[in-house]
Specification:
Blueprint (H helix, E strand, L loop, with lengths): L7 H20 L6 H14 L10 E3 L20 E2 L2 E2 L8 E3 L8 H15 L3 H6 L20 H7 L1 H7 L2 H30 L4 H5 L13 H12 L14 H29 L2 H4 L3 E3 L3 E6 L2 E10 L6 E15 L5 E9 L2 E2 L5 E2 L5 E6 L11 H6 L3 E10 L5 E8 L4 E3 L1 E3 L3 E4 L4 E4 L7 E3 L2 E2 L3 H21 L1
Parallel strand pairs: 6-15
Antiparallel strand pairs: 1-4, 2-3, 4-20, 5-7, 6-7, 7-12, 8-9, 8-11, 8-13, 10-12, 13-14, 16-19, 17-18
Helix pairs in contact: 1-2, 2-3, 6-10, 7-9, 7-10
Amino acid sequence: MSLRQEDNSSITRSIENVFDRHFASSTKLSTSEPSKLSRSMLEDNLFSAPTATMEDDFKYFDDDNNSNHGDVYHDEDTCPVVDGMSEFTASPTLIHVTTLGSHIPEHHRKHHDMLRKHYRFPTASYRKLRRRAVFKNGDRNVAQINISKRRRRYMQDIFTTLVDVQWRWTLLVFAMSFLLSWLAFGCVWWLIAFTHGDLDEDNMADENWQPCVVAITSFASCFLFSIETQHTIGYGSRSTTEQCPEAIIVMCLQSITGVMIQAFMVGIIFAKMARPKQRTQTLLFSRQAVICQRDGQMCLMFRVGDMRHKSHLISSSVRAQLIRPHQTKEGEYLAPFLCDLKLQTDEYDSDVFLIWPMIVFHKIDASSPLFSLSAADIIHEKFEIIVILEGTTESTGQTTQARTSYLPGEILWGHRFEPIVSYNKDRCTYQVDYSLFHNTYQVDTPLCSAQQLYNLTMAEEGSLVENVEVA
């Protein structure tokens, strides 16, 4: 069945009807919600990526003469037709989209702007559907429940617990540790003075009386002496004597305790301030990933960068993992299920030399879990791609890890990242324009999956070989 050219409005209605029905059946939402959500997903994958609703954006390639208006054949059994357009073709599609120089009519531009606004500022109902294991800032979206003896286990590792808690709790523990130690030893000094009779008015009036601690007259003076002893202030007015051995022992114990508390709390504050997590604030990931062709191969790409000028990451590497449901041959349903995505940068593997921002890409070949996904499949597919950047900070020697994730709605089909590195002849240096870090532009990209494109390429090569042999 040949695909005829139709009016722009009818094409738009046909595509929206197809996406409304498939999106509603896959998400099992109410009848009032699929229209809004499918329009948003339609914007993400048809307007943000190839502008597939415009008649002028389609080019059809014929097997014989590669004409722009050739016939596209589909299997009616596996590929039903709606209003002259096929739903999610299972056979290799011959549709190729031209997005460079595409124009949008005025009556479509208003709808395009509305959908783009809805995508950038989604409603609460739309945000609830965007489940993710790792947030864009790298925090995990995992809640652990029903853990036996959880508080006891956290208290056994008190140092890590205090480093992980928020600053207000760390500062509260820091202040309370000193205040309580001062107060506890102040009570001990008051008991020593009380049992020895140093607080008796008659003994204080006697000039020949030898107290355990000189110039102790009340609990307030005992508290001040506790602070002076623990921090070795030594104002000179209060001091211990040789009359009470217990006072000498308590003075030694408090000095040791004070040093231990100070070292412990200073260590916590230093570890909290020097955490490798803070280094990740200067590591950048692109907000969206893109899918386009590179050297004839469909690739998933994203950009990473380090905004620091001097302290670079050394021995850095990038890993990516795909989270999606998986069913084994025995019928076991595994959700979530993680699998690795092979990454590389330029002509070397996933080890990244971040002298400037780099584009990391994953070749969508036969070994890729994305091999069978087309532009239409991504709309209703449920998966998440987690990206992990690891490296060692050059100045501190600490290993740091930055994370982010990409959902299907954050993958732009038919886009490519804009170049941001240029050479400044006046300054004789390379310069990086970070204002273009997240920018992309549209490129010619097939809407079919990498598998369908591979089958089509093999079929064309086979036909060329036959023609050569016949000739």
